Amino acid sequence: MEVRSEGGLQVRCDKIPAPVIGRTRLQVWFIRVCSSLFLWTCLVQLVAVGELWHPRLVSNITHRISEITQLPLPAVPSPPPLLPAMQIILLVSLVLSMNICMPNDLSFAGNYTSNGFLRVSCNGGLNQMRAAICDMVTVARLLNLTLVVPELDKTSFWADPSNFEDIFDVRHFIDSLRDEVRIVRRLPKMFSRKYGYKPLQMPPISWSNEKYYLEQILPLISKHKVVHFNRTDARLANNLIPPDLQKLRCRVNFQALKFTPEIEALGYKLVRILQEKGPYVALHLRYEMDMLAFSGCTHGCTEEEADELKRLRYAYPWWREKEIVSEEKRSQGLCPLTPEESALILQALGFSTDTQIYIAAGDIYGSERRLGRLRAAFPQIVKKETLLAPEELRQFQNHSSQMAALDFIVAVASNTFVPTYDGNMAKLVEGHRRYLGFKKSILLDRKRLVELLDLHLNGTRSWNEFSDAVRSIHEKRMGQPTRRRVIADRPKEEDYFYANPQECLCEEPNCDDLLSPGNSSKTG
């Protein structure tokens, strides 16, 4: 056991016993030697046959290899006919022998000794898992752990079977963080259940800080070598985290978590189609079945629809809140705006009828019946399903996270982003748009809007009064530079790190100038 000090803390670095390492390396070396001999034999046969049929071609190839390698050769008598073949064999043997001497893992360039392995199973939808991955990379760096490529949620309401590599570019993820964290695709076999190993499985405490992970989790790693976090949502605090770790969270979010080439290609195609027709608004209309069922928000639904949503909520035992009074939640601003309410708010904010609106969402509950008023007010409403041919979307269908990734790309690139509910996608898109230069994001104050909507609809407030009030409320809610709101001991109520990662938007001491209240009008 090696003991070393980091920042005044004694960190234990238990290592795998030397015999185990030696045995594993010997096996790898033996396999590589056998592979080299096999390839060498095949190559001799291949070149011999090639010289029988195309001796000039082989000679030209070996001549080009000699030029590329630029190895100075001493003067020798004229070579026998098989020397070109021997050149190829010599070069391949050299490469293979070099490979045998190379270390087993080339993906990590950091300078710490790993204390163990961190395996994580993310839970929730795409954007909740995205934030969790950023947090888990940061925890792995803090504790000097080797991170196993995260597992994605396949058992929640969405039942998406996608793996990490189906959504994110896993090679880019590993390579782009290789100077910070060692990341492997899977645990070594010695730590698998097949070999009798039982890793510690646990959920870390929500909103935990650096001290919790160093004092509570690190000793468990030292004891068990592998810890499996089976829940990862909001397990790292928003605030009071060292600046270098906060910036690592941003680096993972904005640089390392790149979508697969297939998702990016189709996402940017959607952006091009929209931009060719002019500016567009991305409306994150969070009026989907799961949202309404679990929030208990049924305003505007029929009695049959409300009963259906309630049955769905009871069908999931893990959802603790069962009996919910919809109108109470709505009056507190805890419900998403309905499609009808969204139409009125967009009109009050000054968007004209010819505004191009992209609905960044899944299937709207109630379908076209509920979209009627919104479509009447804004005829140029489009979705990915209306912009792309069915065959283009076929590979992504029944994969809700991959479909959400397309909406994410379109929302981040939009001229204006308007979320009707402050869920995970709304918050992460908002943070991305701040990072890209404080692009305009209208952050709706739903509690005040519900009051204004009811007063207007019952005739108490005229349209002009209603419109003026809506605009006044949101003058300083357009995604301008601002500092995160911190509420001690109530992390759920304070501003979310990923919605406003201020540590990554400026360098001290210039942050005071950028994030001061006087700069609240600066948006992209």
From TrEMBL:
The pathway to which it is assigned is: Glycan metabolism
Please tell me where this protein is predominantly located. membrane
Asked whether the UniProt record includes Amino-acid biosynthesis among its keywords, one would answer no
**Sequence intervals crossing the membrane:** none
This one is known as O-fucosyltransferase family protein
- Where is this gene product found? Membrane
CC terms in the record's Gene Ontology section: chloroplast; membrane
Q: Name one GO molecular function term.
A: glycosyltransferase activity
* Highest rank taxon of the organism: Eukaryota
Alphabetical list of InterPro entries matching this protein:
FucosylTrfase_pln, GDP-Fuc_O-FucTrfase
The source organism is Malus domestica (Apple)
